[in-house]
Design brief:
Length: 437
């Protein structure tokens, strides 16, 4: 054994140290079940890392779907400026559309009203848009376009007659929740009432008009589907008595990172108020971020608990190998070398468990559909009801940052868990250990 030591070199993390560490990991069953505890530690880390990657990927998928549906009808950047109403609108639109990263920009009129059908009524957030801009909404796109970074929602009906008029009225598009509450569908009639009425000799009377439902849109977010009404911009300006648009809405090629375009717009129009979709939906965005961070913390704690199993395994290993350590110490092995041997043993469990966990997580993400079908078959229920979530499959999007985070955290947790038992092994007194043996 001394010859092996000298041939292996006396440097830190030498081949001799790795050889002993791997031999200790293969300890036979007669030595107090150390191998069983090592297997349990390996399986625990594997399951924890796999769960972290799989759950974070599913959360990324849900986040992607929610944002895709939200931005299927909402703009990415909003420009509020007095120039929108009083200035040269066409020049502004041409200037904004010429910026790098901008897909297109269009004017919008905003208003609130009461939408009624028979005796039923519902609050409505009316958005007036140009017909040529409506066809560019990813919500109404039939194929994959430039704005296809986010998938579209669903709609019934047609947008071909939008802005062209129909039997003395005009088509509007309403959210699916409004349609359900009012009991109307495509080709039905609804009446819009504005609280800002027109002055008459008999006093101020609410402004109202009947519109035809050209399409029913389902964004997939209840709060949006419950108030959304899209109207031709000319009709919106007349109905709400506006002299011009309220703002310019900008859609960009990369909605996930609107900051570069926002900075350009603020430089171009220093007197304008420029906001992106995150600011417009601050509560929604903050809720997604908090949920993501908290889930990562909880799953990280599970990984940490799994890594703690290494401590019990190494403690038993150190106890069972006290005599071997004492003999090695009398042959000239240093305290640092003993500590490194057990560090290597514990770190090996962590690395192997992490690698296996990564593979398990990747397989779970790739085969999320068959896994969902398996659980539905076993439990006899649809574990992911599309009528509730409006998605037929669990969405899962793998992010490299999540895999890197899970790998580094699991490895560092395993390494930290080995420090105390390894230090204890290095402090074994050879004389005392051999005397009691």
């Amino acid at each position: 054994m001394a010859g092996s030591h000298s041939s292996g070199g006396a440097g830190a993390f030498s081949a001799f140290e790795f050889m002993l560490a791997f031999r200790y990991l293969r300890t036979k069953r007669v030595h107090g079940g150390v191998t069983l505890i090592s297997v349990i530690s390996f399986v625990g880390i594997m399951l924890a890392v796999g769960a972290l990657i799989a759950v974070m990927s599913v959360m990324n998928g849900f986040r992607y779907e929610l944002l895709s549906r939200l931005l299927g009808v909402q703009a990415h950047i909003y420009v509020y400026s007095a120039e929108v109403e009083t200035g040269d609108l066409d020049a502004m639109l041409s200037e904004i559309n010429g910026l790098d990263g901008v897909n297109y920009a269009g004017p919008v009129v905003d208003g609130q009203g009461l939408l009624t059908s028979g005796r039923r009524a519902s609050f409505a957030q009316v958005v007036g848009v140009r017909p040529q801009d409506l066809s560019r909404f990813s919500l109404f796109q039939e194929g994959e376009g430039r704005d296809a970074a986010f998938t579209r929602g669903q709609f019934a009906g047609s947008i071909e007659g939008f802005g062209e008029g129909h039997n003395g009225g005009d088509d509007v598009i309403i959210g699916s929740q409004i349609a359900a509450q009012l009991g109307v569908s495509v080709d039905g009639d609804v009446r819009l009432i504005s609280p800002q009425g027109a002055a008459t000799p008999m006093g101020t009377l609410p402004r109202q008009k009947t519109y035809r439902v050209g399409a029913v849109a389902s964004v997939g977010i209840h709060d949006v589907d419950a108030i959304l009404v899209l109207m031709p911009i000319e009709q919106a300006m007349v109905f709400f008595n506006r002299d011009g648009p309220d703002r310019i809405e900008v859609r960009i090629d990369n909605p996930g990172d609107p900051d570069p375009v926002v900075d350009e717009l603020r430089t171009l129009y220093p007197n304008a108020v420029v906001r992106d979709w995150r600011e417009q939906n601050r509560q929604f965005w903050d809720a997604l971020q908090v949920e993501r961070n908290m889930m990562r913390i909880v799953l990280s704690i599970i990984v940490l608990i799994a890594a703690m199993n290494i401590i019990s395994g190494l403690v038993m290993l150190v106890k069972n190998k006290s005599r071997d350590v004492a003999v090695l110490r009398t042959m000239g092995l240093s305290e640092g070398a003993v500590m490194r041997i057990f560090l290597i043993a514990g770190a090996t469990l962590g690395v192997l468990g992490t690698v296996a966990g990564i593979l398990l997580g990747l397989l779970a993400v790739v085969f999320i559909g068959p896994i969902q079908d398996f659980f539905s078959l076993v439990f006899g229920v649809n574990v992911f009801d599309p009528s509730v979530y409006r998605l037929y499959r669990l969405p899962a999007r793998l992010a490299a940052s999540d895999v890197i985070y899970a790998s580094l955290f699991a490895f560092l947790a395993s390494l930290l868990a080995t420090l105390a038992p390894s230090w204890r092994a290095s402090r074994i007194d050879p004389v005392e250990a051999l005397r009691y043996e």
